[in-house]
Amino acid sequence: MSVSSWRATLRIARRDALRAKGRSALIVAMIAIPVLGMSAADVTWRSVQLDTDEVISRSMGQADARVLDTSQQMRGRPAGEPPRAIFQEPGGNNWQPADLGRPTSPETAPVSMAPRPSDPARPVRDPGSVIPDVSEQLTDRTLFGTISTANGRTDVAIREFDYVKPIAKGMVFQREGRAPRAPNEVVVTERLRRSAGYRIGGELTEKSTGRTFRIVGTVDLPDDLREQMVIAMPGAVIEAMLARPGAGEGRDETLRVLLRVRGGMPWTKVLAANRQGFLVESAAVLRDPPARADRQYESPGEWADSRALRLGGIGLGLGLLEMILLAGPAFAVGARRKRRELGLIGVAGGSRRHVAGVVLGGGVVLGAVGALIGAALGLAAAALMRPWFAEHTGTLLGRYDVRILELLGIGAVGVAVGVLAALIPAWLASREDIAASLTGRRGVRRGSRVLPLVGASSFALGVAIALYGADRADDTIIVAGVVVAELGLVGCCPALIGLTARLGRFLPLSPRLALRDAARSRPRSAPAVAAVMAAVAGSVVIAVVWQSQTADQRNAYRPNAQKNHVLVGFPDRTLFGGTVELSLTTADADGIRRGVERVLPGAKGGPIGQPVGPCKDANTCVDYLPRKLPEFRCPMADGGGDPQRWQTDPRCNGSSARGSFFRSAVGDAALLRKLTGADDPRAAEVLSRGGIVLFEEGYVGPDGTAEMGVQEITKGNGPQVMSPQGESAAAPPTIRLPAVSVRAPFGLPGFFASPQAVATLGGTVEPAGLVYDAGHSPSDAQKQRLEDLVARVSDRNFVFIERGFQPKDDARLLLLGVFALVITIGASGVATGLALADAQKDLATLGAVGAPPSVRRRLSAFQSGVIAFLGTGLGLAAGVLAGVVVRRGQKSALWDVMSAGAKSGRHAPELVIPWTWMGLALILLPILAALLAALLTRSRAVVRGRTA
User: Residue 346: what pLDDT?
Assistant: First the structure.
């Protein structure tokens, strides 16, 4: 065709689109919906993926480096010992001491070096004395402390950081108010302001020093919007907190220094600082990472990222397939509606090329309009969704990153998809008989017998390709396999429609007509079914991957108590470490109990007792420990066996109980259930007989009793030298008690005893704490009131609330899931609307023969319902297939290559298929489509002329 011919065809296509505005709007919507989703996803994805400058700005502002002295975190080293060299990853997120050896396997975890209370204070080293050419420094110091709130008190991170300095620009975002300018002024994060009930201009008090500060503003930490933190001027509070006697015990202080260095901090300078024990985050290294051969350390996180299956390529490939399948029914219906006009072109002397060109011209015109509208709406959607994404992911998005070339590419793909989707309708229209086109006769469409076989073969081939790609963790092969499989399902759509139509003989009039019409008009019905299938499949694969990864996170979560249970502890009454502190009286414990029950009305529970032996004097008391049976004792206890094998002997590994809040407890069976989660009838029976419950095998003899040993504990000096089983070197007096060993989710390291058992041992029951089942997760205000209540008696008392697993939203999956849902709902409605538009003549015929409006509405509803039901069913199958393949690829990328030792104690990646959600989709989507079609069908019969 010549240029003038193309100009004429485009002009005809434009006029036809304007003349049939309703149909054109549906076609434009069918193209615009996936373009909207892809353009919005592109802009949001680019905003989530911070560029290097944004990462540097958030982590170290405008500095050249951020430095941490690791010698402050080394455990058990003399204060005068030279600093230990370290190995670090280039990003500075993980490190390990150099003398631990270079890790050889990806699962080797970095060593955590938390200080012990007994470690002497180390002098803070100046990084400028080690790193040359430092021109400016700014300290960033953090220590956890307790502050007052509107409801009570809470523990938060207290940070001394002058974030208004130019060197720190970008690390903290001012939300409201201003930065602190005086030592008595602070700002708080927005999350803390909401949780604690603060207001700008109000006050808060740091409890350990009693200092009061005025709140002058709120801030956001761009990488952690959920952080609860107070920021003060340098020197305002942390030194005073540490100066108090015993203040350093159990506190985790972090001191980092921002540096400006002449010439920057290249990798060679970073390695030199590592040899002096400094961990360095360098802007120059982040911009230009060293080659893998020059690195000394690779953390498990880096290794996992390097092998992670990339979901972006899979999402892009499936998105392109969806665009093609969604646009197909649009032009198929458009070509059928223009059969008479196309026939007139043939009568006027137009060739088959001209007829096909008019259909393709419609693809160009409507594709361009749909791409333009979709891209514009996508930009608006991405802008409007930014606060919502930040709220759900806990991270501020980067700048509104619009890549013009990428958006033009998406728009061009939309136009190209429009043309490609119009190719088959154009080819069919060019081969249409002119007389049949003018008369409007359709005839009965019989499905091809070859196409279903080709479709089934393609589906099987695609599944095999996708599984092969999953085993190799290759996202390109996975995409190819899934696309081939879905195209195979598309090829099977006409045959499935024909099979479904055979059920019409058993149905009433309206559904029977709907099924027969779908089978008779397969060129219209099959593309609509494919469109719904593509949209539903995209949502299902996201749901499978999302819920499976959430299950992995849930399996990795380790609770410390039963969900919604509140634990209150009185450490002053505990015999850990050989201390005997009885400053908290029984009256104090009763007062705390009554206060907790006021704060948590309706909570069920009560006090936890602990066994306390008699005291010889003010410094020496008696403690009780169960003794293992001889065959379960570690050979080290008796000086036997090979010492080299003690480390691998399971008998020498100590208790496997996970409980850590209380060593031993006293109470009844109800308290046992609340504290440990054990619900064993044997335990209740033993407690009723004055016995004890143990949480590890090897203590209970054949006679159903356990031997209890007695040891002396001296205040300040610690207990006697103990074997791993807890037996004393000297044989102490023993008592046998009824006992049973049970499995419990939160078993105690010691034992759980009845009050009668403690009396038999010759001890007394003292209050150790409280446990309550709140029935729901207590609010932040309730937790703050509880913390204030228990701290009034002693600062060492604690409150712990087990809220259970809290899933974390993945920005990538959240992004894909939102837009997949939008595309699913929109495409399902538009596809069924197009099919309904093509059936208007049939509705007119029903009206002409006297069918009441209810029949026409029911017919429209069942026509849309059939299309939506078949498309949803195929989409669920295709989505499950893709989700299973993606999860298998993720498992191959990480789990299958891990050693057996690294897998120990971990759960393999789990495949979770949301059957409930899928069942609801299979029911609700067809019902919604049917209701929409019934509402849009006119009640009054419209008289239409039939051409034949």
Answer: 60
In whole angstroms, give the CA distance from residue 472 to residue 892.
7
| Cα–Cα distance measured from residue 619 to residue 623, given in angstroms and rounded to the nearest whole number | 13
Q: Please report how many Cα atoms fall inside a 13 Å half-sphere around the Cα of residue 870, on the Cβ side.
A: 30
Report DSSP state, residue 140.
E
**Cα 156 from Cα 151, distance rounded (Å):** 15
| pLDDT, mean of residues 713-742 | 60
Measured CA to CA, the distance from residue 419 to residue 330 in angstroms comes to 11
Determine the pLDDT at residue 670. Answer: 92
Give the whole-number percent of the chain exceeding pLDDT 90.
27
Task: Give me Rg for the CA atoms of the chain.
Answer: 36
CB 573 within 8 A of CB 766: yes
The pairing of strands 173-177 and 229-232 is: unpaired
Q: Phi and psi dihedrals of 246, rounded to 5?
A: 75, 10
φ/ψ of residue 838, rounded to 5: -75, -15
CB 764 within 8 A of CB 555: no
pLDDT in tens, 37-89: 788 888 888 888 888 999 999 999 999 999 998 877 654 455 556 678 888 88
Domain ranges in the chain are: 134-261, 507-557+807-948, 565-801
Q: What is the mean pLDDT of residues 569-578?
A: 57
Helix axes 21-48, 404-430, angle to 10 degrees: 150
Cβ-contact 811, 223 below 8 angstroms:
no
Rounded to an integer, what distance in angstroms lies between the CA atom of residue 645 and that of residue 636? 10
Do 759 and 622 meet the contact criterion of CB atoms below 8 Å apart? no
pLDDT of residue 753: 94
Choose among 656, 312, 723, 297: nearest CA to 479. Answer: 312
Q: Which whole-number Å values give the CA distances from 97 to 276, 278, 864, in the listed order?
A: 11, 11, 66
Query: Half-sphere exposure of 605 toward its Cβ, with a 13 Å CA cutoff?
Result: 29
Determine contact, residues 530/327, Cβ cutoff 8 Å: no
pLDDT of 442 strictly over 80? no
pLDDT score for 157: 93
Calpha distance 667→664 (Å, rounded):
10
- Would you state the torsion angle of the CA atoms of residues 473, 475, 478, 482, taken in this order, to the nearest 10 degrees? 150
How does DSSP classify residue 722? B
Amino acid at 162: D
Tokens of 121: 């204070």
pTM of the full predicted structure? Answer: 0.72
